[in-house]
Write a structure and sequence with these properties.
The protein is α/β, with parallel strands linked by helices. It has 10 helices and 16 strands. Strand 15, helix 10 and strand 16 form a beta-alpha-beta unit. Helix 2 packs across helix 3 and helix 2 packs across helix 9.
Length: about 325
Amino acid sequence: MAKAVRFNTTGGPEVLYLEQVEVGDPGPGEVRVRHVAVGINYADTYFRNGTYAIPLPNGIGVEASGVVVALGEGVSHLALGDRVTYTGFINTLGAYSSERVISAAPLIKLPETISFEAAAAATMRGLTAAYLMRRIRDFKPGDTILLHAAAGGVGMIVSQWAKLLGLNVIGTVSTPAKAELALAHGCSHVINYSTENVAERVRALTGGVGVDVVYDSVGKNTFMASLDSLRKRGLLVCVGTASGPVPPFDPVLLAMKGSLFVTRPALADYIADPAEKAALAGELFDHVGSGRIKIEINQHYALEDAVQAHRDLEARKTTGSSIFVI
């Protein structure tokens, strides 16, 4: 028997509950993984609150790391005892558990240089940062980006990676403490959006020109400020909706504000090709293993604390990454 967090109906954090489940044996193309650490991502709340529709009852969580303890028929690229990590979407749902059966396809072998905890904290966030930095735009040293939620798990990886690429990073945060974190992880300037006008400060910092790219994981509350922070023909990358979905808008607005571009990418489309996933993971693990990118795990929970973990996440009480330790 294993422990697993599940929910029967959509709603607030209180709908989550822990139960004992029978894991069973892996079928063809599957493996059984004993988890060591499990990632907690803001996207998990979208499954729980119904933003992402899934059949119920169901498990929750899409990212974890651990050890392969059983192999199904036809699995040849993994062996018993392999250290692995994974992230995904529907195909990996159910990660909030101590042990599980899962398709072998999304599993990534974990280098010895990367701890289970770092992998659980950084596989989704790190691969997200990897495609945002390496696939969305062909950056040149000296380009400037605006990064919302710069003290969050993805934000702190993106800002460090951007610095390695020679980019200027302007980060936004909600508190002075988060501002210190952002500055320590690659941001050149930080804007406290609780007390400052983001677009005005961006214009001041860029000599009135604006930034080349905005990475916006907040959504509704920051959308207009993000557009107003861009230079002509700049790119807004909508990567999340922590404050709610972006409201409908007339595309002519983009022309009026300088022939702007807007995209809403998804990690799944950048790791669907195994070769591309391996390339992005290789870059990520190389940076993390060498210490060029540091993974900050600032919150540790037990599976029994899933409700509190989601409350902390939605109340923006967290910084860096959060994980369950099994």
